[in-house]
Amino acid sequence: MSDTEFPGTERADLDADGAGRTRLFGGEPKTIQLSLDAGESIPAHTHPGRDIVFYLRSGAVDLTLGDETLSLSPGEVVRFDGDQDISPAATADSEALLVLAESSE
User: Fold this and answer.
1) Domains identified in the chain and CATH numbers
2) The Cupin type-2 domain covers which part of the protein (predicted)?
3) Model confidence over 39-89: pLDDT tens digits?
């Protein structure tokens, strides 16, 4: 089957060699593939007005949300408010998928 059989359908390859942050689709919700090397982190930042889903595909990430740090293993999914400080830090080479949706509140 091709995408032309399903109008309005977009397809992305999560196994493509991506480094850093790659936006998978245009428009909403924002969908990001995140690749971090062991020891690499992203400084604390916010995504105001967004609800975020963070799915760790592989590796290990310490995800700091405000004053709390969650140690994530492959297959774990976290949903959180983007108004708080967010900082992922890879403790192993890691791949994650993030969906940033406009908050309904």
Assistant:
1) 33-105 (2.60.120.10)
2) 35-96
3) 999 999 999 999 999 999 999 999 999 999 999 999 999 999 999 999 999
Q: Which residues of 64-87 are buried (b: 16+ CB within 10 A; e: fewer)?
A: bbeeeeeebeeeeebebbbebebe
CB 91 within 8 A of CB 37: no
Strands 30-36 vs 20-23: parallel, antiparallel or unpaired: antiparallel
Of 26, 104, 80, 17, whose CA–CA distance to 88 is shortest? 80
Q: State the pairing for strand pair 68-72/77-81.
A: unpaired
Q: What is the torsion angle, in degrees rounded to the nearest 10, for the CA atoms of residue 15, residue 20, residue 23 and residue 29? A: 100
**pTM of the model as a whole:** 0.84
Measure the N-to-C terminal CA separation of the chain; round to a whole number of Å: 38
